[in-house]
Amino acid sequence: MATTIHSPIIEKAAGAGGPSYSAEFLRVKAMAERGVANAQHSLGFMYFNGQGVEQNFELAAAWYRQAANAGLEHAQYNLGVMYQKGQGVDLDYQEAAHWYQLAAEQGYAAAQYNLGWLYAKGQGIEANTERAMYWFSKAAEQGDAGAQNNLGMMYDTGKGVPQDFRQAIMWYRKAAEQGYARAQFNLALRYENGQGVAKDPAQALSWFRKAAEQGYAAAQFNLALRYDKGEGVAQDGEKAVKWYTLAAQQEHVSSQFNLGLIYDNGHGVPRDEQKALQWYRRAAEQGHAAAQNNLGLRYAHGQGVVQDYAEAEQWFRRAAEQGFPAAQHHLGTLYENGQGVVQDQQEAIFWYRKAADQGHLRAQFDLGLRYEAGQGVPQDYRKAMGWYLRAAEQDYVAAQYMLGLLFDNEAGPAPDTVRANEWYRKAAEQGHTLAQFTLALRYDNGQGLPRDFGAALGWYLKAARQGHARAQLNAGLMFMWGQGAAADVEQAYRLLAMAERGGAPGAAKYLQQCAARMDATSLALARSRPELLTLA
């Protein structure tokens, strides 16, 4: 909304010093006191800006009023601005609307624009989108860029008029071509989304850049995003940081948060925990929930700050109360462990449920664990299964494995070996070691699956690679006896040696049996170079 005091034309030499201003002031004052309206307005302007006289808003308003009462439209407008801002007079939107109305009816574009805003906001007058549209249109037709942009926004949103993206684009373009940054930004968004125009990333980038170069923070943020991700431009971390920083310095909160992430991860810049912390804090203090959560994590882990669970709790709570699910889960964890708060299982459950209801995977999984174990809630396998299922269907691997165990449990709510194996397989394919071992056992024993030594060996080996001692033992035995693959005592020895180091029961006995079947050369090689283990 434009609330700029408009300047009168004052005859004076450019760059004139103090004495000439004083003379000019005296000349204008004399004319004003004789009732010359333009001089009264000029004198008000001089008092307003401290031009040739000490700044005095009260006297500025007094002289503007005399000129405004004489019908001078720019004085009426400037007096309206002073009432709207409470400069030299008490803030009074109704008075502002009165003076804007008088100037607007004389065709003064800036007053028409401001009057439109007051109607749009319902400040000093009853909100009326039709009147807002009327006055914006009047100002827009005179070329007022702000009014043109606002008309574009009204057509864009269908506020006060039928929604019409083409009309919105037309008005945005008129304002944008006059260099109005907000309209340039709005036009960029339309080219980006293909709303009212053909989608055109190059045009979007061009208009974002024009607005950004004028200091428009939202455009700077969008330009930074493109350099950050390499969208429409070559990826360039330095340029991303430059544009994020320019926006962040204007308190653009998402830019502050993204700067925190960049410095936290060392993405395109040297990693700097303190700069990350600084930007997270600035965003957090403005209410950015993800930044509040990250700041809470810093205090919880003592990362870049002294560990302080009480401080962590405060930041987690601020984010949690905004509905940020990760913070709700972290807050629940603090209550569960009594860190920074009095230990309270019910409060932990409360926050876990808040996060879980929003789809937070770990919270859903944790609720499943608690219902299965009866920890803080009555034991209820069916509810446990429900929470595991919600997380498992989002590919949360630990929940998939636990769901397999529940379906495998004959005392569970729905024993089903086939479904158990399905969930074991999903978890195993995501690399879950226990699921891989369990699935191998199923193929090995033909439990709910056709017996298949080759498949069993494959899954044992996957678990063995991740250090599962019993999988190493079983795979070693299969190589020793030639089950699922050709017999290979060297492979067997190496696997059994790993199993023995891992403490698998019986591994030492089988290792001795395997060694007895090897010649001295093969045994020496296997013992001297165990790292040569090659897993099929």
From TrEMBL:
Chain segments annotated as coiled-coil in the UniProt record: none
Top-level division of the source organism's lineage: Bacteria
Membrane-traversing stretches: none
InterPro entries the record matches: Sel1-like, Sel1_AlgK, TPR-like_helical_dom_sf
SMART domains for this protein: SEL1
Record's protein name: Sel1 repeat family protein
Naturally occurring in which organism (per UniProt): Pseudoduganella violacea
